Structure formats: C-alpha cells, structure tokens
Amino acid sequence: MFRTRFTRRLPAAIAVAGLALAAAACGGESTNAGAAPAATADQLNPNADLSKQSVNVTVWDGYTPKELPQKVKDKLKFPLKIAIHDTNETAMTKLTTGGDSGIDVAFVSGQYAQALNEQGLLEPIHPELIPNLSNLYPEATQLSYDKGNKYSVPYTWGTTGICYRSDLVKTPPTSWKDLLQPPAWADKKVTMMTTERWLALPALKALGYSVNTDKDAEIAKAKELLVAAKPHLLGYDDTTFGDKLTSGEAVMVEAWDGWCPTTSEKQNIKFVVPKEGSDLWVDTMVIMKSSKNKEAAHALINYILDPEIHSWAAVNINYKVPNKAAMDKVEIAKGSLLDIKPAELLNGESLIDLGQASVKYTRLATEIRAQS
Amino acid sequence: MKSEAESRPVSPSRGRRLGAFVFLSPGLTYLVVLLLVPLVLVLSYTLFQRGRFGGVVYEVTGENFSRLIDPLYLSVLGTSLKIAGLTTLLALLLGYPTAYLIAQLPRKWKTIALVAVVLPFWTNFIIRVYAWIILLNGPGLLNSGLKALGLGPYELLYNQGAIILGLLYSYLPLMVLPLYAAIERLDPQLREASANLGASAFSTFRKVTLPLTVPGVLTGCLFVFVPSFGNFVIPEMLGGGKSVMVGNLIRTEFLSARDWPFGSALTLALVAVLVVLLIAQSWVARRA
Fold this sequence. Notes:
The complex is a heterodimer of chains A (372) and B (288).
Chain A: H1 2-18, H2 22-25, H3 29-34, E1 55-59, H4 68-76, E2 80-84, H5 88-96, E3 105-109, H6 110-118, E4 153-158, E5 160-165, H7 177-180, E6 190-192, H8 196-206, H9 216-229, E7 235-236, H10 241-247, E8 252-256, E9 269-272, E10 279-287, H11 294-304, H12 307-317, H13 324-329, H14 342-347, E11 349-350, H15 358-370
Parallel strand pairs in A: 1-2, 1-3, 6-7, 6-8, 10-11
Antiparallel strand pairs in A: 3-10, 4-10, 5-8, 5-9
Chain B: H1 2-7, H2 14-45, E1 49-50, E2 56-57, H3 63-66, H4 71-104, H5 107-118, H6 125-136, H7 141-148, H8 160-185, H9 188-196, H10 201-212, H11 214-230, H12 233-237, H13 246-255, H14 260-287
Antiparallel strand pairs in B: 1-2
Helix pairs in contact in B: 4-8, 4-11, 8-11, 9-10, 11-14, 13-14
C-alpha cells in the first residue's frame, strides 16, 4: 500500500515544484486565480439526457474505487472510462498538447488546476449541477489556489510533517528544528525530502518565511540552515523514507501525511505537524473546457462527493477527504493520520506555482545536495 | 578471390544496390528514428527557453550553454567523472583476473562461469541495488555480523563509497565479457613462443598478453564508464541522495524543474564527454 502511494503523491510533489507561475508573477495568487481567461461558462442544460453522454477521466492509479465505472453506469446511466496518469506532469502533457484531449474530468493537484485554468483550459464549475458541494467542509472552499471552488473541486487533502518512531526518539519532535538540528541521539538518523520545494520547506518554516517565497535573501538564509543540517542527515529521500523508519535506520523523517506508515503494526510510528506550520496540498477534480459531456461530468463529480463514495479514499487509502459528510462516516482513531482537523490543515500554506522563481529552488536543492 | 573483389571498381549492379537498400533500411530506419531524430530534437531544445509546463518556448537564447560552465554544474560533472572513473578502474582490476581465469578453464566450466557472470542480470536492477541496502544499512546483515564480533557499527551506506560499490557490482559483468572475448581470442602459441624465448610469466603477460588485449580493456572500460557516468538510481538509493551526478541533474531538470532546455544542454554535455571517450578509445585501439 505504501509503495503504490508513491506514484500518486510524487506527482503532487513534482507539481508543486514547478508549475504555473504566472499567477505569482502578476502579483498574488488569490486575486489572480479567479481572473483567468477561463471565466466564460457554457450554458449547461440541467435536464440533459445523461445516457447520451459518456465521460473519460484521468486519475492516479488506485485513487478511486475500482467499481466506480459500474456504479456510475448503474446509477447515472452513462459509461465512465478511467485512464491512468502516474504524475501531474503526465496529466499536464495529456491535457495541454493538442486541442481536444478526449478527457472530460481530470484529477490533478491544486497548483496544476490553477495553471490549467490560467491557460483557459477549464470549464468553470456550475455549482447548481453539484448539490453535493454542500457536503464539503467550509474550509474546503477557502483553498488559496482557487477560493470558492470556481474551477476545481477538492478530492483529497493533507500536509507535510515529521514522521517518527515513538519507541526510538527520546523526546517526540515538535519543531522543524528537531529535523534541521537533530539532537545527538538522532544524529545521522534523520532524512529530509529530495524534491526542491519540500527540501526547502523545513528551513523556510523554521525561519518563519512563506513556503512560496521568491526573495533571494530568504532563500539564502534557508540555504545556510540546510547546508548546516546536511552532515547530520542519513540522506535525502522522497520515496523510501517509510522503509527507513520501519527498519530503524532512521528515527525521524520529513514525510507527507499519507506516506507516513502509521498503520504498520508492531512499530510505533507517529506523525506530527511541527509548530512552525507546514504546507497544504490538495488533489482536485476539474472539468475540461473541451469536454462535450459537461453535464455528465458534473453529475460524476456530484456522485463522487456522495459520502458513500468519497469516504472510500479515507477508509481504503488513508487520505483525508475534504468532505464532512464522508469523514463523519469514517471511524477515526485518535492521533491517526485522519485525525487532523480541517482548521488545522488550513493553517498550512498551499504551495503555489512560482513560475520563473521555481528555478531558484531547483538551484538551491542542487547546491545543497552537491555540497560535500 | 579477395583481391578480385577489391580491384573491381565500385559500381555494384542495380540489383545489389536494391538488395543492400532492402537489408539496410530496417537498421537505418531504427538509427534515424530512435537516435538521430531525438538527438536533433535535444540539440534544438537547448537553443530555446523553458516552457511553463515543461516543453519549450520558441525564443532563442544562449543561456542554457552559459549555465553549463557555472561552478555548481562543473562540480557535479567533476563528481560524476570521479565516481565513474574510480568504478571503471576497480572494475578493470577485478575484471581482468576474472576474465583471464575464465579463459583458462576447460570448455565445460567456461560456459558455466560465463553464465554465472551474466546471471545477476536475470534479476531486476532495482531489486539488486535494494539488496545492498539491506546488506549494508545500520541494522543490516553486515553490521549485525560485525556487532556479533564486537565491532562497528560502521556507516557503510549513504556515501560515495556505497555509490561506487553499487556501480561496480552492477556493471562488472560488462567489463568481464569483452575482456574474456579478447583474452580467449589470443593465440596460445604466442604465449608459448614467449616462454620458449625465455620470458618469465610476468613479462609474457606484460609484453604479449596485455598489449594484445588492449582493445578488449578499452571496450570494457567504456562499457562500465558510460552507464556509471549517467546513472541516477544508485546515487539516489545507495548514496542517500547526498551526492549529485550528471544523471540526477538531468532527471531533476526534466521531471521536477521542468526545464527541458537546460536538461537538454546537460544531456548534450554528457553526450559530448562520451563521444570524446569513444574517439579516444577507437584511436588507441587502432594503434594498439
């Protein structure tokens, strides 16, 4: 289970690392997100005969229930075809090359939805066709890349923190500094992430900066901290940090919540969001402007927001879903990954695409990792 | 026969030319489509600017090349050369005696030995590299064995030594096979003659065997050096991501930084280094 997740979250990681910076460049994500060229909505017919339509979806492998196409066929009367993408990048290639991708609904991370919208490729969401939007937490409409869910509907969300072995740490970590300046008992038993934006995150947050900063002075400060941390690390790891924790090679690792193997038996693995704060990632559903089945696409999203369907992700792949009605159905163990409240999550800063400034982060990561 | 063919003027009949065309075209098509076209594409990308979703924006710039001489990237190149060079040297030191011994075995054992050399390739590369992690890591087999003897634990993993070990392990067969082919081909009578003329075993090796197998040595070195130089999996897995090699850099530029033009420039730099090596190899091989 752990391993399959990798393919799913890596895209998010990569996504963040590089996407669409234009928004930032024009001065502020929130003002921009809605003002993009996509804003003209088609007239949709709420009474359209859905059985004459069909929907193609592209999504990460294993991210939706296997029996979804059959259920949609039974309940909504139109055929649903699922295509798989392994990363946000692949999805973007599918969706941005050529005119009509043939895809009606795509699952991509928030920053990518933002970028697609800025390119005018998304159909605005017609809330009147998705009554189940009312199932979402109020917080789920306040996501900085798309306030008010104008062109995207959140599917899962989460954050980055420290995943640790409670049986091997002397004191549980509470701060990013525990990772950056590990105490003697954790020396060389700590890993940080490889991908640039997450590599920088602990240092930026420890210094009280934004994870989306493009200020050279702040990035330089963060670099100092990260360079000083390097000799005390076991390594940089985006993919196998969970294994390093279970084997006991590492006692604390920087991790995405869904990747922290808290469910592994025997061992006492816990996840904590450091007090300085962290990020907020969201995987979203969007409808392509080029879709000829927009009514059915809305009906599909509405169906996915049904608590019965949406809770599947929480129960089966241990991802938090931004759907109150769905989460209320799920039994949540105290201190489990699912036990992070929406309000807490919203304290995290959404990573936005930094445009040209993303080059600074790539360089930062190379400089640190090449440092001997 | 041979001289007749050579003296004939170069004007093959129409039928033969057609035949040549038919037989060459699959290979040629393969080379053009899968080698030349991508290479030209990569070359053209280096001239343009980075696109927002990856890809390129067709505005000409020289920046991608000027970035190459940045000390940061030169140091990455230096690290890669060092790691790949050491790996190749060690592979040669280990591979030559191995190939030499295999070549001396009776025929039946030769086959078995050669199969044994190739055997690791039957298992997936990643799995074999992963196995080293289990062997070498803190709570791993080697360290627990040493602990039982009252030694250690040592930091065997997540450093450049581990990278070299992993590369050496992965590519050693690529050194042994061409060396074996070269040594096997040697006419045993040459060595006998050398011995008859009073040369010691060592000077026979130094003055007869070694010079005659230089082409095999060079091929083996190239086979090991090239994949080691561009490798990015082993530095990531065994090096703990703490060293950056050219392969890692290219991968980052294409996948996470989505800077295709600079990634292409790096790729070209790598190809350039390898072309220089190939030329050097064929030059030395011809002189040897």
